[in-house]
């Protein structure tokens, strides 16, 4: 079957939902060789994925995943990007996640180690002693206790080990770069998703809506960041009450000073760690605090904490400036990490 599928894709023909469903089931069950899996992914990317193909892949990822169901007051959201923008920025979405949780939101953060950048969300949590292989039920309890927890993609999507070698062989972006942020193990219905191309702004939000999403923003900045940025204007698609609208957000429209990309970039993993802590402590660069607050504001909007960006941005800044963000992170690490690692960063 796989050889027929590879040939069909090479002939630039779309797969039907059922065809993709069945072949992904075989791949995730380890029934397809690494070389055939690589050829399949390469031909699929070259052809361009149809919506039915992406939906089938997304459904199979969730079917093979481990899930949790945290019980929290209010909506549970995720904030993440597809990655791969190669901009070497600090971990904006991870930092924003703690601001959102400290400001009254609930975040079931889903992510991985960095593959193309300097530091991924998993790298941040792991540095501070958070056990990436923690049992799912404990992570559920942590989310309920602190309004935030981290789900390591490799732990919650064990079947992805059967595509890992093929992806390494290709060394290029595949459909899984897009689908990872859409396959949250807590099955969140509200989220902020940064995408790697403007062409995916509407597609991603349409895919999520077809799977029951309620309040979702897909975003990309005009200079290519897969998150909301203060360095340029932002293109946004917003799903709310079943309707999708799109608009452009200029940082200056909501009182933010436009900054240079270099102001939010880092060059080492330890610099990423220091930037993350300094923003939460409100001692970091203004540019880093501003972009964190902007993304946290979007999280407050999709999380139902605020209706408009200007109101949400005020909550974000208040949460950082008041010390709530850092207090939450410190208590979080004291409970499920290594507090000495945090103290070491503070002292340095």
- Helix-strand sequence: HHHHEHEHHEHHHEHEEEHHHHH
Largest sheet: 7 strands, mixed
User: In CATH terms, what is the architecture of the largest domain?
Assistant: 3-Layer(aba) Sandwich
Tell me, what's the shape? globular
Strand order of the largest sheet: 3-2-1-4-5-6-7
Number of helices: 16
Structural class: alpha/beta
* Arithmetic mean of pLDDT: 95
- CATH class type of the largest domain: Alpha Beta
Kindly state the percentage of residues in helix: 40-55%
Number of strands: 7
- Rg, alpha carbons: 20 Å
- Say which CATH homologous superfamily of the largest domain is assigned: Nucleoside phosphorylase/phosphoribosyltransferase catalytic domain
- Briefly note the CATH topology name of the largest domain: Pyrimidine Nucleoside Phosphorylase, Chain A, domain 2
Task: Write up what this structure looks like.
The chain is an alpha/beta fold and 348 residues long. It has 2 domains: 2-63, Transferase, Pyrimidine Nucleoside Phosphorylase, Chain C (Transferase, Pyrimidine Nucleoside Phosphorylase, Chain A, domain 3), CATH 1.20.970; 76-331, Pyrimidine Nucleoside Phosphorylase, Chain A, domain 2, CATH 3.40.1030.10. The protein is built from 16 helices and 7 strands. The chain has a 7-stranded mixed sheet, sandwiched between helices. Helix 2 (17-28) runs parallel beside helix 4 (51-63).
Helices and strands, with pairings:
Layout: H1 2-10, H2 17-28, H3 34-47, H4 51-63, E1 76-81, H5 92-102, E2 106-111, H6 121-127, H7 136-146, E3 148-152, H8 153-156, H9 161-170, H10 175-179, E4 190-194, H11 200-210, E5 215-221, E6 234-240, E7 243-249, H12 269-280, H13 286-302, H14 309-321, H15 324-336, H16 339-347
Parallel strand pairs: 1-2, 1-4, 2-3, 4-5
Antiparallel strand pairs: 5-6, 6-7
